[in-house]
């Protein structure tokens, strides 16, 4: 994208400024500023909007302020939140009734493929294009511009996202048609949570025999079995557990366990629809909350 002028870029909006969404939006805004453009942002919590606004982004009062956008990224918690944004909730209008014909909505949230396909069909009825573009790389990757976007879209839709997001990402990957991006995302998260359960049980085994986490991680680093992500997870969890009660652990780690359970449920649902048994993933689903809470 570097070197293109703002005339070649559509007007872009971004909704959802949480743990991942805020650094995603900030990095995207920084790359747009370099080309003389700006980003419209919205979240129902004012604090992250103020932070983006201080960097030059346009803070919106609601969904109707996105009516002029040709591309809107959505990064909210779950399927219900996406549904409410698209169709409206309470007195707020939905994106599908606000955006002009030809606009594109990119769903970055980890949701079900069924809902992606349903929303895409509903958008098409209004002349709007809805694609899935989940990401991997976490908040650090979003901040550093090293996320991988997994895009499920037509070739034209993919080219638009690659042009707009390319400078804010390590890679914008075309997974295939609509729904393909979320398949890759769920498979990726499946591997992530399986790794967390594995390192949790490995730690239990070494500690039961008088050895330490540092020894396990050292060996795992040497042979490449323990990834940086696994090391951060288990080290941070152990540090928290040393100074936290069970109630504190539930408050701090419980929300992350809930997201993991949601993603694994989505993966298992997709596996059932695909007639592909995932016996190990079912076990990971049963263990994942205890893994996060160190139970």
Q: What's the short story on this structure?
A:
With 295 residues, the protein is α/β, with parallel strands linked by helices. The chain contains twelve helices and nine strands.
Distance between the termini: 47 Å
Level-2 CATH architecture of the largest domain: 3-Layer(aba) Sandwich
CATH class group of the largest domain: Alpha Beta
Counted up, domains total: 2
Please describe the biggest sheet, giving its number of strands, its sense, and whether it closes into a barrel: 6 strands, parallel
Q: Give the overall shape, derived from the CA principal axes.
A: globular
**What radius of gyration results from the CA coordinates?**
20 Å
Task: List segments where confidence is low: pLDDT < 50 over at least 5 consecutive residues.
Answer: 1-7
Number of strands: 9
CATH H-level superfamily of the largest domain: NAD(P)-binding Rossmann-like Domain
Question: Structural class per helix/strand content?
Answer: alpha/beta
Average pLDDT taken over every residue: 94
- Give the SSE string: EHEHEEHHEHEEHEHEHHHHH
Q: What amount of the residues lies in strands?
A: 5-15%
Share of helical residues: 55-70%
Number of helices: 12
Strands of the widest sheet, in order across it, are 3-2-1-4-5-6
Q: The CATH topology of the largest domain, please?
A: Rossmann fold
Organism: Sinobacterium caligoides
GO molecular function, one term: oxidoreductase activity
Active site: 185
Protein name: 3-hydroxyisobutyrate dehydrogenase
């Amino acid at each position: 994208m570097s070197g293109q002028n703002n005339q070649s870029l559509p007007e872009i909006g971004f909704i959802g400024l949480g743990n991942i969404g805020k650094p995603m939006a900030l990095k995207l805004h920084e790359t747009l500023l370099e080309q003389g453009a700006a980003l419209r942002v919205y979240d129902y919590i004012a604090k992250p909007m103020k932070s983006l606004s201080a960097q030059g982004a346009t803070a919106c009062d609601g969904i109707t302020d996105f009516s002029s956008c040709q591309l809107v990224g959505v990064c909210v918690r779950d399927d219900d939140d996406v549904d409410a944004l698209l169709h409206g909730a309470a007195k707020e209008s939905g994106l599908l009734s606000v955006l002009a014909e030809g606009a594109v909505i990119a769903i970055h949230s980890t949701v079900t493929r069924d809902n992606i396909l349903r929303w895409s069909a509903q958008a098409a009825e209004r002349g709007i294009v809805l694609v899935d573009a989940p990401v991997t790389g976490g908040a650090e990757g979003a901040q550093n511009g090293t996320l991988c976007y997994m895009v499920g879209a037509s070739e034209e839709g993919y080219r638009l996202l690659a042009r707009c997001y390319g400078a804010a990402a390590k890679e914008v990957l075309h997974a295939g048609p609509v729904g393909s991006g979320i398949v890759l995302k769920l498979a990726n998260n499946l591997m992530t949570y399986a790794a967390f359960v594995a390192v949790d049980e490995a730690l239990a085994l070494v500690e039961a025999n008088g050895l330490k986490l540092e020894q396990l991680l050292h060996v795992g680093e040497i042979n490449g079995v323990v990834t940086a992500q696994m090391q951060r997870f288990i080290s941070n969890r152990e540090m928290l557990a040393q100074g936290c009660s069970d109630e504190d652990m539930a408050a701090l780690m419980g929300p992350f366990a809930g997201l993991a359970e949601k993603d694994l449920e989505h993966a298992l649902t997709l596996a059932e629809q695909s007639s592909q048994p995932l016996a190990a993933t079912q076990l990971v689903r049963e263990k994942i909350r205890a893994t996060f809470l160190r139970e």
